Amino acid sequence: MGVHPQMVPVKKTGTQNYPQGTRYSDNNRDHRKPVRALLFDMDNTLFDLVGAQMAACTAVTRLLGVTEENSLFPYFLRPVHGFEAHENILDFMHDRGIPGSDLYDGARRMYEREKLHAITPYPGVVGTLALIRDLGLPMGIVTDAHSRDAVRRLEKAGLLYFFSCMVTYDMVRVKKPAHEPFIIALDMLKSAADEVLLVGDSPRRDIEPGKTLGIRTVYARYGDRFSDDRSTVESDFTLDTMAELPEILAGLSE
Q1: What is the pLDDT of residues 68-80, one digit of tens each?
Q2: Do residue 70 and residue 189 come from a single domain?
Q3: How many contiguous H segments (helices) and E segments (strands) does the chain have?
Q4: How far apart are alpha carbons 162 and 121 in whole angstroms?
Q5: Among 62, 87, 156, 164, who pairs with 81 as Cys (CB 3.0-4.6 Å)?
Q6: How confident is the model at residue 140 (pLDDT cuts 50, 70, 90)?
């Protein structure tokens, strides 16, 4: 069954003040416990959101009559409105002297439609998740996306039914690398940090907070397109394809 995200009240915490009922291991403890559950980042870990956005931007520029390639996507990379904000399209139209609120509305709808249409799982993802499910290990999602977008993307990729829980931005009102999304996810999985394996494509937003909380981490290098979003924190494991994850799990079993 698919997950049904609900609003979760969150108490702001540091690394030493955790919600009641959640178990955490000290970073200095032995990390040889068998893995009991897994957490995954979603965008650019399970599927290529950046590629989907680029395809959507190409469709929008064609709609707007702009022939220059890759002219819209850089607007989404600016630290202005947000990585998926529609206001980036409005800024693009303003800079190009393209008028019309109706055209903007059409461009926004096309952006969302084409972005979702372009989402497909990375190679090896479906088979790997099926194997983990068959091992009886619960899996959860920790993402900065809103729950509506997360569910739609996972459904489009055919992955939603693999996951028993999900933490999204609108549930906790903070984004990674804040610790709260991970803390809530661990509580949902009813697992201690040192019993969980976290897979993500961002050293700063996934690997660094995971290691701080005592979670073993797997860096999905294949999905990291942003060389300026790296940190000095090293992951416990690195993947060049999701199909390599079962071998890592085999080495962490009882």
Answers
A1: 989 999 999 999 9
A2: no
A3: 10, 6
A4: 13
A5: 87
A6: very high
216 neighbors 249 (Cβ within 8 angstroms): no
Burial of 145 (0-12, 13-18, 19+ CB in 10 A): buried
Helix/strand/coil for 172? helix
Place of tokens 């009240």: 9
* Residue 210 phi, psi dihedral angles, 5° rounding: -60, -45
- The answer to whether 145 and 42 have CB atoms below 8 angstroms apart is yes
Q: Above 50 in pLDDT, residue 181?
A: yes
**28 falls within a domain:** no
Residue 143 falls inside a structural domain: yes
Please state the φ and ψ torsions of residue 179, each to the nearest 5 degrees.
-80, -25
> Which parts of the chain fold into alpha helices (H)?
49-63, 73-76, 87-95, 101-117, 125-134, 147-157, 169-172, 180-189, 208-212, 245-251
Q: Which CATH number do you get for residue 152?
A: 3.40.50.1000
**Do 87 and 154 lie in a common domain?**
no
pTM value is 0.85
Give buried/exposed letters for 4-15 (b at 16+ CB in 10 A, else e): ebeebebeeeee
Residue whose entry in the numeric block shows the structure tokens 């084409």? 114
Note down the domain range covering 107.
49-117
